[in-house]
Amino acid sequence: MFTYSTKGTCSRQILFDVDENNKIHNTRFIGGCGGNLQGIAKLVEGKDIDEIEVLLKGIRCRNNTSCPDQLSKAIGEYKAAKAGVENQ
Asked: Residue 15, SS3?
């Protein structure tokens, strides 16, 4: 499970798994607006992470970011970490 610490949002962390087909699973937000974040988690379940990253990038709420935008950033960080491991 990948864990990302959010910046500038009510949620504090985002956790998710990515399978061998680049699909996201088990997305959980820690903190934040429970109903909205459960909805986002259900909507992204089983979707390609590249698609989600592009779709959610730049959505703004407060502090010039949002929980969906932070999920996009989390996916970017996941991909960078994965690429770093693969290049070792």
From this structure: strand
Q: Could you please report the per-residue DSSP string of 20-47?
A: TTSBEEEEEEEES-HHHHHHHHHHHTT-
Q: Quick count: other Cβ atoms within 10 Å of Cβ 81?
A: 12
Asked if residue 27 lies in contact with residue 71, where contact means CB atoms within 8 angstroms, the answer is: yes
Measure CA 2 to chain center.
9
Burial of 10-26, coded b for 16+ CB within 10 Å and e otherwise, reads bbeebebebeeeebbee
Task: Tokens 């010039």: give the residue.
Answer: 64
pLDDT digits (tens, 9 = 90+) for 32-67: 999 999 999 999 999 999 999 999 999 999 899 999
- Which element (helix H / strand E) includes 5? strand 2-5
Instruction: Name the pTM for this structure.
Output: 0.93
Q: What are phi and psi of 81, to 5 degrees?
A: -65, -40
